[in-house]
Amino acid sequence: MNNLIEIKGLCKQYPTFALKDVSFNVPGGAIVGFVGENGAGKTTTIKAILDIVRKDAGSITLLEQDSTHVAPALREDVGVVFDEICYHNWLRPKQIANIATKAGTTPTTKAWCKSWALPRPWPRTALLRTFPAA
Q: Which residues have C-beta within 8 Å of that of residue 34, sequence separation ≥ 6?
């Protein structure tokens, strides 16, 4: 089976933190969790894989392509759950509900939800009820 993620010599330097020479592979069909101390580089590694931050050195192959050239449609096949969801503090609840209702509406995500018998994404009205009036 092919590796869906291949990382070789990944490095990223910040003023107060350095990710140095990270290398690993994730085979197809695997479910992987990053566990480690705060500041170990878990989030930085995931953000580099998703091309949210630019790596300083090393190579990242995602879905058999260089991670900087992966088409948005292919990125839909990658599932990531961060430890927190950050919305800008200037967004109103209705705006957050609009963003949240768009999540999970791509054909790939809908098919995945159906195959795993998961509920459809929340309707916008249900999300709005969870927020106080704007």
A: 42, 45, 46
Strand order in the sheet with 65-66: 17-27, 3-14, 57-62, 65-66
Residues 67 and 106 in one domain: no
Q: Are residues 61 and 8 in the same domain?
A: yes
Structure tokens at 56: 């300083």
- As to burial, measured by CB atoms within 10 angstroms (0-12 exposed, 13-18 middle, 19+ buried), residue 55 is buried
pLDDT (tens digit per residue) in 50-90: 888 899 999 999 888 888 887 777 776 777 766 666 677 78
pTM of the model: 0.60
Instruction: Specify if 14 maps to a domain.
Output: yes
Residues 48, 46, 131: CA angle, nearest 5 degrees: 115
Q: Do both 101 and 58 map to the same domain?
A: no
| Lookup: tokens for 17 | 């933190």
Helix (H) or strand (E) holding 98: helix 93-102
Q: Please give the residue range of the domain that contains residue 25.
A: 3-75
